[in-house]
Amino acid sequence: xxxxxxxxxxxxxxxxxxxxxxxxxxxxxxxxxxxxxxxxxxxxxxxxxxxxxxxxxxxxxxxxxxxxxxxxxxxxxxxxxxxxxxxxxxxxxxxxxxxxxxxxxxxxxxxxxxxxxxxxxxxxxxxxxxxxxxxxxxxxxxxxxxxxxxxxxxxxxxxxxxxxxxxxxxxxxxxxxxxxxxxxxxxxxxxxxxxxxxxxxxxxxxxxxxxxxxxxxxxxxxxxxxxxxxxxxxxxxxxxxxxxxxxxxxxxxxxxxxxxxxxxxxxxxxxxxxxxxxxxxxxxxxxxxxxxxxxxxxxxxxxxxxxxxxxxxxxxxxxxxx
Length: 322
Fold this sequence. Notes:
Elements: E1 4-5, H1 35-57, H2 62-88, H3 101-123, H4 132-158, E2 166-167, H5 172-190, H6 201-225, H7 236-263, H8 277-280, H9 289-319
Antiparallel strand pairs: 1-2
C-alpha cells in the first residue's frame, strides 16, 4: 500500500472543491477552469513561449543553452501530459501514483526553470550582441521566470498540510528529496570534467558520496511514485531516517574534503581564481575550472543543509505518535 502521512484518523476522499489546495475536477473540460488547471495552463504557455522564442533565432548554442532549451521543452511536454490525463480522467490508468507524481514533477519543474532563469542569462545572454537574438533570449528568460513562479505556486498549493491524508512526496521530507536529487544533478554537471578530481583519492571519495546519496534519494522517490514502499524489509519511515542520517554523515565528509583539496595549497589546491589559466581568458558559454570547484563546494553545503532538514523531519515521522 502507498505511504501516507496524516495527523488525524479521519480518512478523506478526492474533493471537487474549487479551493486552491484541492484537486481539480477530472474527466471534464471544467478541470481547466479551476485555479490549479488555470495555473497549469500558464505553465504550459510560458514554457512553450520560452523555447519557441529561443528556437526561432537559434539562441541556444553550447551546453548552457542546450540545458535551458531542454528544460523548457521537458517542462512543456510533461505539463501537457498532466493536463491530458486530468482532462480525460485517466489518473487510474497512469503508471505512477497520481497522489505523488504531479507535486513531484511540479517541484522538479520549478527547480529546472529556476536554474535556467539564472544560468541562461548569466552564461549565454550577456555574451550576445544587441539585436533580435538577444531580445528573444531576454524575453525567453522572462517567461522562464514566470514559469518558475507558476510551478512553485503549484507546489505551495498542493503540499501536505496538518490534518490531511496525502502522498509522501507532498510532505516536507518528500519535497526535500526532490531538492537533494536536483542539486546532485547540478553537481554532476559541474564535475563532468574529470580533471577536477582525478588521481586524488579524497576528491574521488567526494564524487562517490554525491553518487551514493543521489542513488539512495532517487530510490526513495521511485518507491513512492511506483507505490512499492511495502517491498522494503523494514518500515518505510525507518528506511527514510536511516537514509537521511547516512547522507548527512557522507556529505559532512565531502563538505570538508572538497574545499580542502581544491582551495588549500598544502593539498594541491588553488586558492585564487586569478591564478587559474582557464579563468584568465574571455570565454563564452563556458564555466572555468575554478568556478566549477567553487560551485560544487557551495552546492555541497546546500545539499548538506537539505539532508539535515530531511533527517529532522523524517525522524519526526518515526518517533512522534499523534
